[in-house]
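Sanity check

After download, print the first record. It should look like this:
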Amino acid sequence: MLLNVSYNNPEIKRKIEEAVGKPFTLRERFKQGGIGIGHLVITSSCLQIQNLLALDKYRNKCNIELRPEGIIVGFRSLLESYALVIPYWKLNLYKGQAEEYSIYRDNYFIKIEAKAKDKKTHAFIKRILEQKVQQAPTAIENL
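Expected structure tokens:
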């Protein structure tokens, strides 16, 4: 779900917490070595997000925040902040090209640049995939 998170709205905060859980505590953030990564360059996106990003002339960047049950991809357009809230069970992550990751939720997607020398981005995407696997339900074969 794509939400405008510019203003402190309890209804939007409730929707986000229902979808991906409450933010990690400070202790959990230190234990995990951080829960976010910023300044990821957006190379491509779906039409809804592209229409928002086209409103200003700045380079399109986003950040990703881990939550207990999903991720939040945040970006800015003009003076507004937007969040693409993705629970792990709806998250699809692809590495289509050599230097690009694609993050999908239903009909929304964002493609981010990940240079080969940028080890932080690759490590963070790997952490997202590990979290998704931990959240996945037990398969019938494993019972």
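If your output differs, re-run the checksum step. Summary of this record's structure: DSSP finds four helices and eight strands in the chain.
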